[in-house]
Amino acid sequence: MQQVKPRLGRRLVFSHADSIRTYDVGPLLTAFVRARLLLVNALRNQSAQTILIAVGFLFSIVALLPKLAFAQSANYKVRVDFGHPLQASVEAELDVPDGLVFTAQHSGGYAWWDFIKNLHQIGEDGSSVPLLSAAAGLWSLPKRTNRRVRLAYDVDLSFAEKARRGDLRGGLFFGDSLYVVNRALFVMSNGSGAKNIEFDIPPAFVIATPLQKISGRAFRTADNRELTDNWTIFGRLPVVDFSEGKFQVTFAFPGVNAEEGSLLQPIFTPVLHEYLRIFPQTPATHLFFAFFHGAEDNGEAYLNSTTLTMVDPITPKDRILWTNLLAHELFHHWNGGLLVPHDNDKTEWFSEGVTEYFANRTISRTGLISQELFLKKLETHVAMYDYWMWAPPFQRTTLETAGADKDYNRPAVYSGGVVAAFCLDTTIQKQSRGAKSLEDLLRLMMDQYGLTGKQWTRDDLVRDASKIAGADLSGFFSRYIASRGMLPVKQCLTEAGLDAALLDYAGEAFISFQEPHHRRRLSFEKASHSSSETPVFKFAPISIWPWLMIGLKSPSLTMSAVSSTM
User: Fold this and answer.
1) Which of 57-71, 201-215, 261-275, 503-517 has the highest mean pLDDT?
2) Three-class SS of residue 39?
3) What is the reported pLDDT for 142?
4) Above 60 in pLDDT, residue 519?
5) Among 546, 511, 551, 545, which Cα is nearest to 528's?
6) What order do you get walking across the sheet with 138-140 strand by strand?
7) FRET label pair with 526: which of 58, 66, 126, 245, CA 20 to 30 Å apart?
């Protein structure tokens, strides 16, 4: 697995017993190098005057370093009280260069400043001075205040005591554990430097968070965004780590019972293994997922973490729903996380449709759902796309423009995106005579955009797909994606060895495997490298279609339960 080498930062960090100091030495480094060159030239020329000038210049830089580039870290101590009402008390030590402190901006239906209570500054003599509100979520310090200040305040967390729509964007209390989005906890400043956080919670509780762990219950972030655009979970809850090579995933399950946990855990190993097979160049990564029962079936992505919620309990009979949800959101690490489009609205069909395509395919290939359930899932996607193409309210919308209103056009963005991905896959395989597939396109895009940080455009996608297929596919995108042309669904299904009966105005689709004598390009054989008796589809070169039940080698993943009540 290829690991992306981090860029060398121009920042010096000096650690002390009770503080961390950070120096931004970018401009000074340039001056230092110039002084060094001057000294070298002076020594070569044996010029005493130039030597003295260069040495003096170097000493001046060292002497000015603390004054020119000093940025002391912010320190937070957060004590969470799990009684009633639910609340936290915070002590903070901040650099406040402009005399202003603030909360995160309104988001997810939460005005974070409403939860901040009793915000005051603590003087050197222990005196307390309330801060003055300058605007919503903004406070000004008293005049003649030193740059370095101590603050104290309370956080009203009672909003998390009851489930509500959007609780994955704010917080939810489960009795023995608390999920909270960090935006609720922290008052910040514009001071630069690292942010150090220490949590004070009961000894028996665990902490699950994407924040960098320093020791025990101490964590650190690089800046305000990393501090607040993530979540933290405290309490008694299952926390499970999965890893393969240098790729690691941590799942936290607050409020999930032991029976549900036993159903959830087995899905991650085969799914992660399959995704890393598709993207072997994935850089070293540690992903964090939270999963719990909330007021809605939803998902929310944060800077270094993702939250998934479902209303109904996790049971074997609805396996396809929660298995596909988790597989879908995990694939977004690559498609949408590393592969970032330049124009998100016009490429939602790709971000969501391709992700759903691979999620469906993966849970079938790995045996997490049956072939019968897979076909039902495929029937739903085809039927919804077919109906969307027929229905009068959508006649002026294309797959490309549907992303501008993702919820209203959900049949297009998700199901239409799946059908488009499916037909693009079969088209690439047919044009390349089985040598390439949609997987090869994604790997190419990962090399060109995912590993370089470059955003991809629609033109990039057309060019890259054509390159992989070995044929000009611009007509595919202009006709079926940018315009209202109906994707050749039946033809694509036939190429995959499937028969279909479709009724657009009724939103009905019935898909089945072709009869053996009709499978001209399809034959069954057992996987010689698999321990299971799962059949494998083997196709002639012109029609290789890797959707279903391909035998997979047992994944070489490791799993460890950090803390579990299961």
Assistant:
1) 201-215
2) helix
3) 83
4) no
5) 551
6) 132-135, 138-140, 100-102, 188-189
7) 245
Q: How far apart are CA 421 and CA 353, in angstroms?
A: 7
pLDDT band at 565 (very low <50, low <70, confident <90, very high): very low
Answer yes or no: same fold for 73-167+175-236 and 242-543: no
* β-pair partners for 199: 78
Candidates 3.40.50.1820, 2.60.40.3650, 3.40.50.880, 3.20.20.10; CATH matching 73-167+175-236: 2.60.40.3650
Q: What are phi and psi of 174, to 5 degrees?
A: -115, 10
Altogether, the residues listed in the chain come to a count of: 566
* pLDDT at 455 (0 to 100): 97
Q: Which DSSP string corresponds to 59-98?
A: HHHHHHHHHHHEEEPEEEEEEEE-SSS-EEEEEEEEE-TT
Tokens (6 digits) for 108: 């997810």
In angstroms, rounded to a whole number, what is the distance separating the alpha carbons of residues 19 and 218?
13
534: three-class secondary structure by DSSP:
coil
Q: Which of 261, 255, 237 is nearest to 314 (CA)?
A: 261
By C-alpha distance, which of 377, 222, 233 is closest to 305? Answer: 233
Query: Which element (helix H / strand E) includes 463?
Result: helix 458-469
Q: How far apart are CA 134 and CA 199, in angstroms?
A: 29
Predicted confidence (pLDDT) at residue 523 exceeds the cutoff of 90: no
Q: Which CATH number fits domain 242-543: 3.30.420.40, 1.10.3720.10, 1.10.390.10, 1.20.140.10?
A: 1.10.390.10
pLDDT, tens only, 124-176: 888 999 998 999 999 999 876 678 999 999 999 999 999 999 999 999 999 99
Rounded to an integer, what distance in angstroms lies between the CA atom of residue 307 and that of residue 149?
34
User: What is the pLDDT at residue 265?
Assistant: 85
Q: How confident is the model at residue 416 (pLDDT cuts 50, 70, 90)?
A: very high
Tell me what pLDDT residue 258 has.
Answer: 87
Using DSSP, state whether 294 is helix, strand or coil.
coil
CB of 57 closer than 8 Å to CB of 35: yes
Cis peptide before 85 (omega within 30 of 0): yes
pLDDT of 197 over the 50 cut: yes
Compute the Cα dihedral for 399, 403, 408, 413 and give only its sign: positive
Q: Where are the domains of the chain?
A: 11-71, 73-167+175-236, 242-543
In this predicted model, which residue has the larger pLDDT, 125 or 357?
357
